[in-house]
Amino acid sequence: MRPAGVADRSSAALLRPPRGVVLDPARLPQHVAIIMDGNRRWARSHRLPAIEGHRRGIVALREITRAASDWHIPMLTVYGFSSENWKRDSTEISLLLDLCVYFAEHELDELRRNNVRVRVIGNYRQLPPASRDALDRLVAKTARNSGLELNLAVNYSARTELRDAIAAMMADVAAGTLAPDAIEEDTLASYLATAGMPDPDLLIRPGGEARLSNFLLYQVAHAELVLRDTFWPDFSRDHFAEAIAEYQRRRRASGPA
């Protein structure tokens, strides 16, 4: 059943986001993934500390989450904190962890108003207790929301996710609960952190880079990729609409054209 208040996708009416971009509601992506890249470079370009770029990144995430809700996109997954981020300066890591708590506590009312349900993927249990507990509270307090599902990838690594999934499959085979000859193409997907979620239709990467950065490597096999030079803190509702419009202009295919 469609959540209350969500428009009928079969409607002939067109969504009209900012700047005159027209989106076809019948061809919206069901799942958008975003690599939120460029926070530190944005800060350097403005001669500000790196943490100011991350703070501005939260503002951008708020705007894009609102837009996804307004346009009735069911699922949004964002790369918030990579497991590789632990290699950064310890002061920046500490501030990032504090910012995680800030986001979980200060964005709750906004997420509730927009009927957004939050999930966390990745090894976030390895975070310090304050960050881990703040995310747990955010998930619990939005669990009954029925609108957009916002997946936060925190302390996430696609290679680690795949390793853990394969290890769990092997353990089930050894225990006799999974027969090797019963393993099919979708079996591995059921062991991933995204089990039960549709694969992303669209992957957006702001920030000017053109790589996947160990993000959802299995899940984005058939996703359309949209790359933008704009740093994430400057990525707006307009940029989001343009990325979706580009997605809609493409002919969807599961293999090489």
- Which architecture of the domain at 27-157 and 202-246 would the CATH scheme give at its second level? 3-Layer(aba) Sandwich
Strand order across the largest sheet: 3-4-2-1-5-6
CATH level-4 homologous superfamily of the domain at 27-157 and 202-246: Decaprenyl diphosphate synthase-like
Largest sheet, strands/sense/barrel = 6 strands, parallel
Beta strands, count: 6
Could you describe the 3D structure shown?
The chain is α/β, with parallel strands linked by helices and 257 residues long. The protein is built from seven helices and six strands, in the order βααβααβαβαββα. The protein has a domain at 27-157 and 202-246: Undecaprenyl pyrophosphate synthetase, CATH 3.40.1180. The chain has a six-stranded parallel beta sheet with strand order 3-4-2-1-5-6, with helices on both faces. β3 (117-121), α5 (129-142) and β4 form a beta-alpha-beta unit. The radius of gyration is 19 Å and the shape is globular. The relative contact order is 0.19. Residues 1-13 have low confidence and may be disordered.
